[in-house]
From TrEMBL:
Keyword presence, Transit peptide: no
Organism: Actinophytocola xanthii
Protein name as it appears in the record: TetR family transcriptional regulator
DNA-binding region listed in the record: 33-52
Alphabetically ordered keywords of this record: DNA-binding
């Protein structure tokens, strides 16, 4: 990562990543060319390649930035100090809020993996790394909700999230979010009911 004399991330790099993020998410990874990113970010091609030696590296940086934003959102929910079930509800509500947003175009990670199906490709690997983190995070929280092993419930939560993210731009977002949130509540209720049974 290129930094200026004060140790800050270069303004040109930030502009490139902001521009790429907007374009990649709205239009797709393969659909957006380097020339367009350079033009809209108002940098030279040489500047782009100084920060990102290839388009693939720019795509990976975009996904890492989206992953970081997701982590910060989860960290905010965790920092509230709520019981695990309420933290999971807060995470689910944040996902639903994103689906309801005006510029929602599906999950950045599911969209990326559809364009980069080769599991060995760095873009695909960035998607898998983020998904592994998310699954681990919700599974760890679910371990504190009920006594049953949490792995199946964690996978169930991620599947619900994937379905909501995929359906959110194809169907009525309000209905999709309602279904998703009810599904998460069902997971939590099932785990909590199994304790009292």
């Amino acid at each position: 990562m290129v930094r200026n004399a004060r140790g800050q991330v270069s303004e040109a790099r930030s502009r490139l990543l902001t521009t790429a993020t907007r374009l990649f998410y709205a239009e797709g990874l393969h659909a957006v060319g380097i020339d367009r990113i350079v033009a809209e970010a108002k940098v030279t091609r040489a500047t782009l390649y100084r920060h990102f030696p290839s388009k693939d590296e720019l795509v990976v940086a975009y996904l890492q930035a989206v992953a970081q934003a997701d982590r910060e959102g989860v960290d905010t929910a965790l920092a509230a100090g709520l019981p695990a079930a309420d933290t999971l509800r807060a995470i689910a509500s944040s996902i639903a809020e994103g689906i309801r947003s005006a510029r929602f175009r599906g999950c950045a990670f599911l969209n990326a993996v559809a364009e980069y199906p080769d599991a060995a490709h760095p873009v695909h690997q960035a998607v898998l790394a983020h998904r592994a983190w998310f699954l681990r995070t919700v599974t760890d929280l679910l371990a504190d909700v009920g006594d049953a092993p949490p792995e199946l419930a964690g996978r169930h939560f991620v599947l619900l999230r994937d379905g909501a993210m995929s359906s959110g731009c194809l169907a009525d977002p309000a209905e999709v979010c309602d279904t998703f949130l009810q599904g998460v509540e069902g997971i939590l209720r099932f785990r909590l009911d199994s304790v009292s049974a």
